Amino acid sequence: MQFFKVRSNGSNSANYKTVHENAQILYRNIASKSKRRPYIRSIYFKKQKIFIALFWQHLFDKNWKERVRRLQYFECGFELIEKTTYPPLTIQNPHKSSELLHRFCGITPRGIIFFVQIKECKKTGEKSLISIFPR
Length: 135
Description:
Oligomer: single chain
Structural class: alpha/beta
Strand content: 25-35%
């Protein structure tokens, strides 16, 4: 599997409030560009929309330490989705046969490996960002 090298370092802070505020600023910036559901476009998926609202629902199912760990790579994850051309690891969702899970790999300038997981509905082709997490 190939790792896409991103330019952003992610957040160094272990403080939930700081990391969450930085992620919210980035999210609001992206959400303000759309009148409906916020999305980013992916080069790998031929500029198709990747909806990002599901990420927050999935994030708040986790405990606060895990939230901090995942939010630290929020900016890196968005850069990876937008710019990567490397193929992801794609598997069928073991819990739902009507969904595919795409897992992209990235590496920060500091050498930290992280993953971005995107869910694709086979029937509609709609793609949603589920998770961003370090190894």
